[in-house]
Amino acid sequence: MLEFDKAPTYQSILEAAQTLEGIVRKTPLLESHALNTEIGARLFLKCETMQHTGSFKFRGAYNTLRRLSSAQQKGGVFAYSSGNHAQGIALSAQMLGIQATILMPEDTPQIKMDNTRGYGAEVITYDRYSESREEIGSKIADENGLTLVKPYDNHFVISGQGTTGIEIAEQLAEQDVTADICVCPAGGGGLIAGTSLALKELSPSTKVYSAEPEYFDDTKVSLECGTRVANTGGKKSICDAIVTPMPGEITFPVNKETLSGGLMVTDDEVRSAIREAFHHFKCVIEPGGAVAFAALLTGKIDISGKTVVAVASGGNIDPDLYREILAG
Amino acid sequence: MLEFDKAPTYQSILEAAQTLEGIVRKTPLLESHALNTEIGARLFLKCETMQHTGSFKFRGAYNTLRRLSSAQQKGGVFAYSSGNHAQGIALSAQMLGIQATILMPEDTPQIKMDNTRGYGAEVITYDRYSESREEIGSKIADENGLTLVKPYDNHFVISGQGTTGIEIAEQLAEQDVTADICVCPAGGGGLIAGTSLALKELSPSTKVYSAEPEYFDDTKVSLECGTRVANTGGKKSICDAIVTPMPGEITFPVNKETLSGGLMVTDDEVRSAIREAFHHFKCVIEPGGAVAFAALLTGKIDISGKTVVAVASGGNIDPDLYREILAG
User: Fold this and answer.
1) Which residues of A touch B (CB under 8 A)?
2) B31 with B67, same domain?
3) Beta strands in A179-284 (DSSP E)
4) Please, which residues have CB within 8 angstroms of residue A39's CB and are 6 or more apart in sequence?
5) Residue A307: helix, strand or coil by DSSP?
6) CB atoms < 10 A from the CB of A39, how many?
C-alpha cells in the first residue's frame, strides 16, 4: 500500500512531474500590458483554469491514481470534494480505467456535478453545512473497499499540485524573469503547499502568500498563530472551491515553513477580479480561483514596481453566477 | 519604402516569426476530453483570444510597424479597423514609440474603443454602413503624412498573422498529432491566408477551410466562383470583427490556392459556440472569433473521427453581450 501521509518534498514533486509529463496541460502564464500599466507592477496570471477539468486538481488526482497498486485500481477509488477534486479524480479514473465514487455537497455548482458524472463517476451528495464529509466518506470507503483519495491531505496529491510551481518557475525563467511574489489560493492548502515547495527550490527569492475568502481565512490565521486554527463557521462565501474548515494536517506543516503570510479578500473583491480577468485575459475564473488575483489587485500586499504571480486555480463557474458577476 | 503589396510567402512568414520571437505570446492550443467525447472527434482550439490585445491582430501589426523606416516611424501610422487591428496597431505603436491614429466604426464595441485609446492611440470614428473607411482613411493618411497600415491587404500583416499557423503546426507536432482539418475565421482573409500558407508548408495534408458569418460569407462565395465577390450588403451580424465587404486583393489569391473551401454559420450557431467555449475551455471568445469553432460544432464539415483545429481569433467582447449570450 502507498503511504499517502508522508510529507511531500521537492523530490516527490519532481517524481510527480515525470508521471504527469505529456498528461497534464502546461497551462499558460499570461501577462497584460494594459493591466500592468494600470497597477504599476508586472503581473502574471497562471491559468490553471485551462488545466484538464478546468482546475489544477487534475494534477494531484492523476498523480495519485497512477500510483495505486493494481488491486487498489481494481477496487475503485472514493473521493469527497466540493467539485474540482471530484472532476480531477473522475477524469483521471476514466483515463486509467478505474471506477470512481464521489461525495459532493448538495449545493455544488451544477457545472461541477454534471462534469463529474460526465467523466463516468458515481456521485453521492450531502449537506456541507450540517454533515461531515470526512465521516461519511470514511464509512462509504471502508464498507465498499474503496481507496479514499483525500483532496489535499495526501502526499501524492500535494506533489501533483506542486508541478504547477515547477511550471511557473520554468515559464518565468524562459522570459528571464524572477517573481518577487507569488500568491496562490488556499482551501485545504494542497496547491499552495506543493507550489511553494517547488518555488522554494527553483526560485528561493520569491515570497509565497496564501489568499483566502473572508470568513474562510483559516490558513492566514493559522500562519499567524503558528498552529492549525479552524474557521468559526456559520458563514457562507461565493468561493465554493475553497471554503474548507481548516488547514490540512499534511499541508499546514509545509505551508508554515514555506509561506511568507496569508492574505484575505471579500466576495466583492473576488467579483471585481473575475471581471478584470474577463477584460484583460479573456479568461473565465471561478470565485475560489480568483482570490489570489483579487488580493494582488486590491493591494493586500505592496506590489508596486514588483513582478508578481497570481495563480488562477480554477474556472468551473455556473453561467448564471458568471453573468451576475459580469453585470457588476 | 517598404513594399506592402507583395504576395506573402512561407519565407516571409518565417521572417515574421523571427521578428516576433519573444514579443508575441505563443498562445495555448487547448483540447477538452469531455468535448472530444461529445463530438466524436479530437478538437484543438487555438486561443488567439489570449494574444496580446486579445486577438491575433497584434502579430501582423507589430511585424509591420517594426519594419518601418525610422522616417515612417517618426511620421506616425494610421489604420482603419473594426477594433482588433486597431488594438494591435495601438499596442505595437506604443511599444515602438510610434504615434498611431485609428479610424473605427462608431458602433465598435466599447471595449475595443477603450482599449485602443488605452494604448495611447488617437481614435476617429465613422459610420460603417454609409461611409467608406478606405476613402476616409486614405484621405487622412495622405493629408497628415501618416503611413497607412491596412488590416489585411499588407504583405507584412499577413506574414505576421501566419505565425499563428507555425505555432499550430509546432504545437501539434509536439504531441505527435497531425490535423486533418483546420478552420479559421475569415474577414478580409489575412489570418487565414498566412495560417494556410504556413500549414501548407509544415502540414501539407491538413485541409484548411474559412469560416464566416451568414450574410458575410464573401470568402466562401468567392472561392466557389474563383474570383472576388462582394457581400450583397444591407445585413448585420454580431460578428463585428469580420463583417468585411469582400475578400482582400492580396489575401484572396493566396486563399484561392491554399483553401479547401469555405464554411458559413449563423449568429445563433456562433452564440452556442461561445457558450461551449465558456463551458469546456474557460475561454472568452468574441462572436467573430468563434465562427470556426461554431462551424466545427455544427457539422458544417464532417469531422467524425478526425483531428481538427479551430482558430479562436479574438476575445474582445463587451460584457453585456457576453452575458446575453451566456443566458442562451
Assistant:
1) 22, 25, 27-28, 30-34, 37, 47, 49-50, 52, 54, 91, 94-95, 111, 115, 118-119, 175, 275, 278-279, 281-285, 315-316, 319, 322-323, 326-328
2) no
3) 181-185, 207-213, 261-265
4) A296, A297, A303
5) strand
6) 17
Residues B302 and B317 grouped into a single domain: yes
Distance from CA of B154 to the nearest CA of A (A): 26
The strand pairing partners of A309, in sequence order, are A44, A182
- CATH number of the domain where residue B78 is located: 3.40.50.1100
Residue A5 inside a domain? The answer is no
Number of residues that make up chain B:
328
Q: How far is A158 from chain B (nearest CA, A)?
A: 24
State phi, psi for A283 to the nearest 5 degrees: -120, 125
Of B52, B284, B323, the CB nearest to A284: B284
Q: Locate cell 448538495: which residue?
A: A106
Same domain, residue pair A260 and A162: yes
pLDDT digits (tens, 9 = 90+) for B120-164: 999 999 988 888 888 898 889 899 999 999 999 999 999 999 999
Classified as helix, coil or strand, B313 is coil
Task: With CA atoms as reference, report the closest residue to A193 among A33, A45, A7, A67.
Answer: A7
Write phi, then psi, for A42 (nearest 5 degrees).
Answer: -105, 110
Cα separation, B242 vs B289, in Å, equals 8
pLDDT tens by residue, B229-239: 999 988 999 99
Neighbour-count burial of A234, counting CB atoms closer than 10 A to its CB (0-12 exposed, 13-18 middle, 19+ buried): exposed
Q: Which has the closest alpha carbon to B322: B277, B291, B281? A: B277
Cα A86 to Cα A92: distance, rounded to the nearest angstrom: 10
Asked casually if ipTM beats, i.e. exceeds, 0.90, the reply is yes
Q: Which residue of B has its CA nearest to A319?
A: B326
Pairwise CA distance, residues A83 & B152, whole Å: 45
* pLDDT band at residue B5 under the 50/70/90 scheme: confident
CB A87 within 8 A of CB A119: yes
One domain for residues A131 and A258: no
Instruction: Give dist(CA A7, CA A19) in Å, integer.
Output: 18
Work out the percent of chain A whose per-residue pLDDT is above 90. Answer: 88
Strand, helix or coil for residue A123: strand
Q: A176-195: per-residue pLDDT in tens?
A: 999 999 999 999 999 999 99
Q: Which residues contact B138 (CB under 8 A, 6 or more apart)?
A: B148
Q: Same domain, yes or no, for A129 and A278?
A: no
| Distance between CA atoms of residues A193 and A185, nearest Å | 11
Residue tagged 461565493 (cell numbers): A238
For residues B168 and B275, membership in a common domain is answered with yes
pLDDT higher than threshold 70 for residue B62: yes
CA–CA separation, B92 and B87 (whole Å): 8
For residues A39 and A82, membership in a common domain is answered with no
Q: Are A12 and A201 in contact (CB under 8 A)?
A: no
**Cross-strand bridge partners of residue A46:** A29, A311
- Indicate whether B284 pLDDT > 60: yes
Radius of gyration of chain B (CA): 18
Neighbours of A74 (CB within 10 A): 12
**Structural domain of residue A101, as residue ranges?**
58-148
Q: Are residues B130 and B174 in the same domain?
A: no
CA distance B117 to B120: 5
In the listed set A109, A125, A148, which residue is the last one of a domain according to the structure? A148
